[in-house]
Design brief:
The chain is mainly α. It is 77% helix and 0% strand. The chain is globular, with a radius of gyration of 20 Å.
Length: 411
């Protein structure tokens, strides 16, 4: 895994994202805690601001396939840095407006992610040799979860210590550092394939969506499982957006415990990502299925254990399952989806799997006065177990990315 850092371009990208993701993790923990103190309804609105722009990933993927993915990464980080800077300025002029400023910054950050995510999927294979791609993905995912875990814990403590202005300032610096790192990375990456500048797709850029969708439909097991995927994402989106409310109102704990609880999930995903290479030696369909069933089981334990320290343990185990599975599937898709349509295919995938998220976070925000919060966590457990059992039956055997026969596009 560490060997992938020998590639200079990947090393700079990794360093930039290390600081950027850490700053964003601290900002989100602080932001969601402040928002839920104002209103559970605003918590749902913040969730919408975070997920609705990500549905534009299908457009982001098409843009990435038509233009320079590396430059798109650079400009989206600059945009997000400017948004945080403007938010800090407005906050200084009108401190009581902080919940609304935070929601606005969250929305701009999510908009940037809709373009940055597909661009990453295209650029990362250009930075390392193919033999190091799995290690690079594992390290990249590991770093993301590590910074989220540490940032969550620090974010919870930062609310009572350094304050909101310092958190805004650190997030601003982290985005600008990431932009500089990406600028340096651009000098050390392999060139992208030439863009078909005279093709009809340039004249009608969104016509390229059908190629991404066609690639997805070749994964018949994915299409069959899509309703369960949407249901699982729906319940998880609602449950996780209510986590600060659950910690504060149901467990009667503090922002510090919220940071630790949220950080446990990220730490678990970090551990899972770290072990993705080792788990890759086993049957992929069985690994993912067992992870889903185990994750659902620990979420049931999370729902019925009303103690912060125990909830930290359950989320840690659930995160391990989630992190390993994500790293394995991401590497497989990168290898099997042709570079020419990789951006729009990943953009389409991101849009599809998050389609139910906006409705979930909105309903979660207004549901706290209608149903017990625990209902969301029970639903998370049931949907996860159902997904794991169904995937065991449906996913093709030996889908390990070693052959393109399963996912090769139809001619």
């Amino acid at each position: 895994m560490i060997a992938s850092l020998r590639a200079t371009g990947f090393r700079w990208l990794w360093l930039g994202q290390l600081l950027s993701q850490f700053g964003n993790a601290v900002f989100l923990i602080m932001g969601f805690w402040i928002i839920q103190l104002k209103s559970p309804f605003l918590l749902g609105i913040a969730g919408l601001a975070m997920v609705i722009p990500q549905l534009l990933a299908v457009i982001g993927g098409a843009v990435v396939d038509q233009f320079d993915a590396k430059r798109i990464m650079l400009w989206t980080d600059l945009l997000r840095g400017i948004a945080v800077g403007l938010g800090l300025l407005v906050l200084a002029l009108d401190p009581p407006a902080s919940p609304y400023i935070i929601i606005g910054v969250i929305g701009v950050n999510a908009f940037g992610t809709a373009f940055f995510g597909p661009a990453e999927a295209v650029v990362l294979p250009l930075l390392v040799p193919d033999k190091d791609l799995s290690a690079a993905n594992g390290l990249y995912s590991l770093t993301s979860q590590m910074t989220s875990a540490i940032g969550a814990g620090i974010g919870g403590a930062a609310i009572a210590t350094v304050g909101i202005f310092a958190v805004f300032g650190f997030d601003l610096v982290s985005f600008w550092f990431s932009a500089i790192a990406i600028f340096i990375m651009m000098r050390f990456s392999r060139p992208l394939e030439p863009k078909p500048e005279t093709s009809a797709e340039i004249k009608r850029p969104f016509a390229g969506f059908k190629e991404g969708w066609k690639m997805i439909t070749t994964m018949r097991w994915f299409v069959i499982l899509l309703p369960l995927i949407l249901l699982t994402n729906f319940t998880f989106a609602g449950g996780l957006i209510l986590l600060p409310y659950w910690i504060h109102h149901d467990l009667h704990s503090t922002a510090f415990w919220y940071g630790l609880t949220d950080g446990a999930w990220s730490l678990g995903m970090m551990i899972g990502s770290l072990n993705a290479g080792w788990l890759g030696r086993f049957s992929l369909e069985k690994t993912i299925s067992v992870s889903g069933i185990l994750q659902g089981s620990v979420m049931a334990a999370f729902a019925f254990t009303h103690a912060p320290w125990a909830d930290i343990l359950w989320l840690l185990v659930g995160g391990i399952c989630n992190g390993a599975t994500n790293a394995l599937i991401f590497t497989m898709l990168q290898r099997l989806i042709p570079e020419a349509i990789r951006g729009r295919t990943f953009g389409m995938l991101i849009t599809i799997v998050t389609a139910a998220t906006p409705l979930a976070v909105f309903l979660a925000g207004i549901s706290v006065n209608i149903i017990p919060t625990i209902s969301w966590y029970v639903a998370m457990a049931i949907s996860d177990v159902a997904f794991g059992l169904s995937l065991w039956r449906i996913m093709p055997r030996h889908l390990d990315g070693s052959s393109g026969t399963v996912l090769a596009p139809e001619s």
